[in-house]
Structure to design on (164 residues):
């Protein structure tokens, strides 16, 4: 890919980089450059002198320190974002629970007339059943004296239908 560069840390893409990614890439390049320079200088230490090598090693250590600090700062930022997202999610769910509870309460209150109507219908059916039983009992009572006066004749089902 045209927007990649190699380092000892692997291949890195620079497409759509953020400021933090660019800084990290700069740190990696600095580390790579200093690492190569140190490797070359260590081969020629006798010629260059130990003072120069120490200076370069100090620079290398500074870049490593900056890279580590950068990494830790990003970890802190990520942790803060995670906490903020958790907090917002919990608040959203709490709000949804509250709305859901309120909606259920309102539905329960609106259904009260229906529950009362169903109760009234049930009581009405109970009263109607009692009245039907009483009416059937009276009708049966009227039929008994009629059959006892005529004797214990058994009527066929057709005869019973004709009488009614």
């Amino acid at each position: 890919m045209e927007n990649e560069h190699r380092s000892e840390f692997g291949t890195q893409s620079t497409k759509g980089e953020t400021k933090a990614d660019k800084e990290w890439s700069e740190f990696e390049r600095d580390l790579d450059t200093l690492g190569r320079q140190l490797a070359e200088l260590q081969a020629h230490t006798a010629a260059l002198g130990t003072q120069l090598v120490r200076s370069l090693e100090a620079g290398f250590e500074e870049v490593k320190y900056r890279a580590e600090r950068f990494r830790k700062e990003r970890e802190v930022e990520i942790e803060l974002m995670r906490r903020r997202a958790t907090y917002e999610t919990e608040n959203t769910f709490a709000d949804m629970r509250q709305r859901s509870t309120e909606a259920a309460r309102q539905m329960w209150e609106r259904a009260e007339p229906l529950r009362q109507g169903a109760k009234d219908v049930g009581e009405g059916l109970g009263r109607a059943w009692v009245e039907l039983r009483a009416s059937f009992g009276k009708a049966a009572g009227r039929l008994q004296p009629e059959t006892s006066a005529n004797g214990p004749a058994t009527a066929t089902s057709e005869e019973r239908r004709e009488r009614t």
Q: What stands out?
A: The two ends are 101 Å apart (CA to CA). The longest helix spans residues 50-150. The CA atoms of residues 94 and 100 lie 10 Å apart.
